[in-house]
Specification:
The protein is an alpha+beta fold and 286 residues long. Helix content is 32%, strand content 22%. The protein has 11 helices and 12 strands. The strands form 4 sheets. The protein has a 4-stranded antiparallel β-sheet with strand order 1-6-11-12. Strands 5-9-7-8 form a 4-stranded antiparallel β-sheet. A two-stranded antiparallel sheet has the order 2-10. The radius of gyration is 19 Å and the shape is globular. The chain starts with 6 loop residues before the first helix and ends in a 10-residue tail after the last strand.
């Protein structure tokens, strides 16, 4: 079934209105972002082609993965409703966390979850990065160092596209038998709105176990750059592994279809309580 959103009009329009996202980083700063096609102002044919490819892949992506999944810290939903679903770097900016703590949190592995607080914005928790191994990460990075990779991860929020990926994470030794906040998002409206901030990955970028898959500048790719058709034969589980949003999603409530506290116990997904489920008439339409 095709979704009801006009991707050709919506995504193409948003893309054409934000061509700056495609300009190469010439600052000289080391980055793990993929080198994008440099679009020179006035090169409308190239802009149109990339916009058309973005729209085509986004529509196929939405039909294949109608729901996105995010595993958050237990009890985090009230803060997310208020502030949005923000990346670690965005939270540190908002909470005015000073250096050297800020730099350490952005460029080093968090072996435990880290609480932060602000007199206005309340409290938040930065999740641990236990599935990453410093030793394995150093082995598998192709063109940047671990500090840069951690910074790259911390500048975005992550969604699974396949529910089995969510369940696998919740079943990991560090997280099984523990409650989490599970957020389900309607893909169509969300992707249409955030197309310019979305980057896709073909691997679990926050994990190096049991095998440290190679990763680097080309791991996170804009929708138009992602080899979607070439990976279709891998099935839903691996065609696209992660959908990430640079900076975060401040208006996440517009796209949520369900929020619940849940956990994996005795191998089963157990809902503890339902926190949010909007009526269909209140969901965003475009």
């Amino acid at each position: 079934m095709r979704n009801e959103y006009n991707f050709t009009k919506g995504i193409r329009g948003k893309y054409l209105g934000n061509v700056a996202h495609r300009v190469l980083d010439t600052s000289g700063n080391q980055t793990c972002r993929p080198p994008s096609v440099c679009i020179v102002p006035g090169n409308h044919d190239l802009v149109e082609r990339v916009a058309a490819r973005t729209s085509e892949i986004a529509e196929q992506l939405t039909e294949r993965y109608p729901v996105l999944y995010h595993m958050g810290w237990y009890g985090s939903w009230p803060s997310i409703q208020k502030l949005g679903l923000l990346s670690t770097s965005a939270l540190l900016d908002l909470f005015q966390i000073p250096d050297p703590q800020r730099t350490d949190l952005l460029t080093k592995q968090r072996r435990t979850s880290v609480p932060i607080s602000h007199e206005v914005y309340g409290s938040a928790v930065l999740r641990d990065q236990k599935p990453l191994s410093e030793k394995n990460l150093a082995r598998c990075l192709t063109d940047c160092d671990p500090a840069t990779w951690y910074k790259t991860l911390n500048e975005r929020v992550f969604f699974w596209l396949n529910r089995d990926r969510l369940l696998k994470l919740m079943s990991a030794a560090e997280y099984v038998e523990k409650p989490h906040t599970v957020i389900e998002v309607e893909t169509a409206a969300f992707v249409s709105q955030y197309v310019n901030q979305i980057e896709l990955s073909h691997i679990n970028t926050g994990n190096t176990r049991p095998y440290p898959h190679r990763r680097g500048r080309s791991t996170f790719r804009k929708i138009a750059d992602y080899p979607y058709a070439e990976r279709l034969h891998l099935g839903d589980y691996s065609t696209v592994v992660e959908l990430t949003v640079l900076g975060g999603v401040r208006d996440i409530g517009k796209y949520v279809r369900c929020v619940e506290h849940a956990m994996i116990t005795k191998g089963e997904y157990q809902v503890i309580n339902r926190l949010f489920k909007p009526d269909a008439k209140h969901r965003v339409r475009q």
